[in-house]
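Pipeline run #58 for the internal structure catalog. This entry was flagged by the ingest filter as a single-chain record with no existing model, so it goes straight to prediction. Upstream metadata was stripped on purpose; only the residue string is passed forward. Reviewer on rotation: M.T. Logging verbosity set to normal.
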Amino acid sequence: MPLPSLSVVVPVFNERDNIAPLVHETTAALRGLTAFEIVYVDDHSRDDSLAVLQALKLQVPELRVLQHVQQSGQSTAIRNGVKAARGEWIATLDGDGQNDPADIPKLLKARASADLRVKLFAGWRVNRQDSGSKRWASKWANAIRSSMLKDATPDTGCGIKLFEREAFLDLPYFDHMHRYLPALMQRAGWQTVSVPVNHRHRTAGVSKYNNLNRALVGIRDLRGVAWLIARSKRSAIREL
């Protein structure tokens, strides 16, 4: 197989029933469009997610499987998947199936017509399919984040994103960083664009987050990211 130009990174924890449908949808969306690979990172699942992935590898040549030897969280899974990826550009999907892989070509199309300084194309769930309480919590979280970070991004929590691998790996790493990628990319001097995408109901498994733990972690992270932005210093360089 040729080296991929795109790597689709999917973190997964206890999502055994969502894995196969998402893998097959991703291959259907991308085969014939671009050279790609799918990198699943199993965050030490307690169900048989890993066995499902290993069986799928026999059917899907584009599929690669990584496993954390201990549970480490979504941001670490994404970062380890990006580090292992061979593509110059990365698309991410949540492992619960609520992101639609058919939107990846839409993000690639947006990249094709964008300024070269745009290094992140962030999905924007314009028609959320979550519970009312989760939508309400997300609305207020986005408003608070936007007020503090000035990142001009309506939906940083959407799991489907497209970004340049090199730019991502140059960002400061911390747990839950995946929720602040637009602000971190802008801090690094790059531009970001939000692209409307589809959002779907979860059809199997249960959410790994609740509104309270999101809020408690988010307050601390917001303060940290605001500090990073305030302390940022960039300078153009020239070689003499």
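catalog note: The longest strand covers residues 118-125.
catalog note: The first helix runs from residue 16 to 30.
status: ready for reviewer M.T.
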